[in-house]
Every structure is written in C-alpha cells, then in structure tokens.
Amino acid sequence: MKLNQIVLKDILRRKRRVLYAALGVVIGTMTVVGVLTIAYAGENRIYGQIEKYGANLTIIPDINSIDTKLGNLSLGTLTVGENYISEANLPKIRDIADGEIRKALDINDNLPIATIAPRLYVNAPVRGITVIISGVLPEDELAIKNWWQMSAGKYIAADNEAIVGAMTAQVLKLKVGDEIPLNGSTKLVIAGILDETGSSDDYQVVVPLITLQKAFGKEGLISSIDIRALCNACPVEIIATALNQNIPGIKAIAVKQIANSEMDLVTKVNRLMISLAGITLIIGVFGVVNTMMSSVHERTRDIGIMRAVGASRRQIMQVFMLEALVIGVIGGVLGYFTGTLLAYGIGPVIFEGVSIRALPQFIPLSLGIAVAVAAVATVYPAIHATRIKIAEAFRSL
Amino acid sequence: MLEIKNASKIYGDGAAKVTALDNVSLEVEKGGFVSIMGPSGSGKSTLLNIIGGLERLTSGEIILNGERIDNLTEDAFVAIRRGKIAYVFQQYHLLQSLTALENVLLPLVFYSANGKTEKAMELLKRVGLEKRVNHKPNELSGGEQQRVAIARALVTAPSLILADEPTGNMDKKTGEEIIRLFEELNRDGHTIIVVTHNPEVARITREVVSLQDGRIVSRTKNVGKG
C-alpha cells in the first residue's frame, strides 16, 4: 500500500465533498475553455471571411436604407427599388479596377483581369412568402462565389432557370424542377439547390440578371456590384478609392477594411471575456480554498492519526496535494466538456452566426489550469493541516 | 530504557496557572509493564502525552534508550514515532476509509514505500483477527477495533507501547480480552506503559504508579509479576 492509495480510498469515501471541491475548479475552467472556444471561433470566422472575400470590393449606391451582407460581413445598407447603379457604369468600373491592378502588378496587356459581378435585388413573394431575389450574371457570380456547391440539381444554365438557397428551399418546400412565377408573368424553373453556405445566400433565390430586370421593368439597373481582384496582394483599397473618386453616386468598399474593423471589435470582446474568465478563475480558487479548509477541519482526527503513526508534516502536505491533483484532473475534464457546451450555447449569442467547434487542443490547457487552480487553492489549507498537533486533533472530538 | 527526570508540566500562568505534573521522576526497565493510575486531573494522561511527544515538558528530561527525546523538534520526533514509540488510544483512532489490514499497514506507508503485508497479516493473526482483515472499522466491534489498533502499534516493532485507557470504551468481558492481550504482549518482551482507571488492568501490570495532583504518591510492584 502506498500513500496515494490511501488518498484515493479516502476520496472514494468522501465522493460528494471532493466533487463539491471540484465544482469550484470546474466553474473556473469551464469559463476559460468556453471563452477561448468562442474567441477562437469569432476570430476564425473573420479569418475565414478575409480568406474568402479578402480580394473583394463591393460597390453599392451611395444612398442606403436596408441591410446587405456579403457572407456574414455587414456591408452597410441599401434601399431596394429606389436606389440603383446604372449598368452603364460597368465598363468604367472595369477600366478603373483593371487599371489599378495593372499598375500595381506591372501588367502591360489589355485583357480583363478582375471578375465583376453586378447584382439586382428585388423583394418579391414566392409561394406567399417574401424573399430576396437576386439577379446575377451566372458565370461571373460563380467566379466570385467559387465555394458554391449544389446540394441538388445543377447551376443556372438558361435565362429561365433559378437556384435557391438551402434555407429558402426548406422554408418554401422547393424542389429541383419546381416552377415559380416571377411577378405574375415570367415562369422560372428551379435548376438546383445550393448547399448551405452559412451566409445570406442561404435565404435567396438567384436568377439571371436579365430575367429579373425584365420581369420587374428594371432594365439597365443594378443594386450592387462585387469585384474580385486577381489576387490577395491586389491593391483593393486603392481601387476602392479610385472608384469612389471617379464614379458619382456609388460607394466602393474594400472587404478587408470591413473585416479589419470587425476584427478589432472581436478582439475587444475577446479581451473582455478573457478578463471575466480570469475573475471567475480567481473566484473558483477561493471556492476551492473554502472547501479544502472544511475538508481539513473534517479530517482533523485523521490527520492526528496519521501523525501519531509516524507521518511527517511533509507527508500530510502530500496527502492534501495528491487530493488537489485528483480534484484538478476531475475538474479539468469536466471543465473542458462544460466549457465546450457553454461555448455552443452562448457563442452564437456573442458573435452572431458563429459556428462553434469543440477544440481538443484545449484539453491539456484545461487540465493544466484546473490542476493549477486546485494546487494553488490547496496550499494554504494543506499548510494549516500540517500545523495540527496530534493531541489537539484528538481533543477536538 | 525509559527515564523521566524531574518532569514538570505547567499550563497557563499567573492566576490561571495549573501544575499538571510536579517534579515527577520515573524509570521503566526494558520489558517493563507499568500502569499509571489516579483520579481525573491527577496528571496521568499528561504524563503519557509528554512521554509520547504529544505535549511538551515545562522542565525536566525524558530519556529513551539513552537519548533525550523531550527536546526534539516536531519534525525530529517523527523518527521516534517510526519504530521507537507506538500508541494505543481509548478511541482506537483507526482510519475509517481503510480496512483492518490497511490500518495495520498504515505506519509502514509513512516510512517505506511499500507496506509488508505478510507482517501485518501475522500481527492481525496474533491479535485474533485473521478472519476480519478486510473489514472496515465500522464493521468491527469496539474490542476488534482495539485489536486492530494494537496490531498497528506492533507493526513498527516499537521499543515502547503507550496505551491511554485502552479498555475505557469496552464492556467488562471485551476489556478482559484486551487486558489478556496486553499481558501476552508483555510476556513476549514488549515494554508497555498504560494509563488506566481499570483496576483489572492495574492488577496484571508489574508495577502500579499512582498519581495525585501531578505527583507520584505510590509505586507498587505486583507480587509475582515483577
């Protein structure tokens, strides 16, 4: 028999007390793991957006009134039905965008470089529910949204075909081959259904631009333009500035700028959360100190017995530190799982629409924090235990 | 083997001063069996506690096997508890989470990495508990628990066993069994000092020391025992 076996047997006898002590550790560790998981997801989402849209610019009319979004990045607001960009601006936009890229990358030919995808938004009822219908140039749109995958059917191949976002398909119960009327007269066939993207695309019906313009009498009008530059190193901010200076009535925004300011916000929120987690951790330490203190009092007699049969003060210290180790490991494991659950629960509330993933790389961190908390919290009670005198231990009964 | 020279123990000071031991001198031979008797407050438990290092002397000396032990630090006294002095208490003082066998092994856990199970089994057999080795204290009677405590005291092969009212919690019959066990242990060569109220216990010891008001008032050798 060894000292750690004695400790384990004692822990098994006092399961409830030990779990109670572990609770303080769990609360601290849970908060840290939860917060870090959320923070990681929050930052990751932005990194993902930058990777996806980093080379992009969006152009919208200069007067705005409803929300538009690119992925999860808010791109400002826009008034559908009243404020448009004229299609006539497209060649000029191409000239400026390609011109800046050529300058930056030292290219001398005159072939088109950037992908330019104009879009028209119309709010219209489909099967009785109002949805956003996007009119796009199918090929250019797909070049920009190269991550689009069809979960059923095919992409738009003709002017009378449409694809629908995953959520729209679900809510409107649309299948491939279904026909939907557009503004009464025009009939569209659902060619395909988009795989879920996690962006606002999930809620749209996407149709060819020309079809939408005709159906609603908006020939020559577009609501927004997405521009994808050739590369991540392309001077998107310079292009945006040049567009804003040379074309009246539009607002060009580099996605990077939006991402950067959103990242600043995320970083600030993360810092706040991490400091709150730190406070919880400290509260947890005090909780464990408290429980361990009463555990020492409870076991005054046992400590006296051990001392009487030859335990040194160091060995009494060891008994409590071993117990702290067990409490730390239990607390660390529980803390990791509850923390991850916490992240799943409140992550999407803190960072809207963020997708939380369990992060196994936090398991060692979680165990480390939990064991450290338990150990720190046990030092004082354990020292107290070593000061108990045998005679006093037996007299206290 | 054990020598107590002019031992005094005073609690508190000024008006609240209590003299628990007043200049007590006593020697116990190897193989001795001494009972200490006296009314409550006579200082008999204090005497046992100072021998066992549970309390400190105010003045005087305690010499065990030629070595002074009264001035040892708390940490140095640990070595005395590991094989020189063992205790048997009125309340048994067993760890509730451990079985009889594990309680007997407990002293060895603290000064060697591994307990010697065979030795503990042998001792449990010696005290007549070979059938109860895997029972926990709450599954044992008072007499059985005290037997476990005695086996635990023996496991380190101590020079001296100190017993504080070992039969104090027992009915007459169980108490007699424990007394007989102590008698056998002494016959086997163990040196034992026992504090007791029980005249039955005093009768079997070789010497009876009577205390009153912290002083030895009589020392009687039992006929046919010493």
Instruction: Bin the helical content of chain A.
Output: 55-70%
CATH top level assignment of chain B: Alpha Beta
Strand content of chain A: 15-25%
Mean pLDDT of chain B: 90
Biggest interface: A-B, 26 and 32 residues
Query: What is the residue-averaged pLDDT of chain A?
Result: 87
* Low-confidence sequence ranges of chain B: none
The Rg value of chain B, from CA coordinates, equals 17 Å
Q: Please describe the biggest sheet of chain A, giving its number of strands, its sense, and whether it closes into a barrel.
A: 10 strands, mixed
Number of strands of chain A: 14
Give the overall form of chain B: globular
CATH fold-level name of chain B: Rossmann fold
The biggest beta sheet of chain B, please? 6 strands, mixed
Using only C-alpha atoms, the radius of gyration of chain A works out to 31 Å
Written overview of the protein:
The complex is a heterodimer of chains A (397) and B (226). Chain A folds into 2 domains: 179 residues, no CATH class; 186 residues, no CATH class. Chain A has 397 residues and is an alpha+beta fold. The longest helix of chain A has 44 residues. In chain A, strands 1, 5, 6, 7, 8, 9, 10, 11, 13 and 14 form a 10-stranded mixed sheet that branches. In chain A, helix 2 packs antiparallel against helix 8, helix 2 packs antiparallel against helix 11 and helix 8 packs parallel to helix 11. Chain A is elongated. Helix content of chain A is 55%, strand content 19%. In chain A, strand 5 and strand 6 form a beta hairpin. Helix content of chain B is 32%, strand content 27%. Chain B is built from 7 helices and 10 strands. With 226 residues, chain B is of the alpha/beta class. Chain B has a single domain, classed as P-loop containing nucleotide triphosphate hydrolases (Rossmann fold, 3-Layer(aba) Sandwich). Chain B has a 6-stranded mixed sheet, with helices on both faces. Chain B has a 4-stranded antiparallel sheet with strand order 2-1-4-5, covered by helices on one side. Classes of the chains: A alpha+beta (397), B alpha/beta (226). The interface between A and B is medium-sized, with 26 and 32 residues.
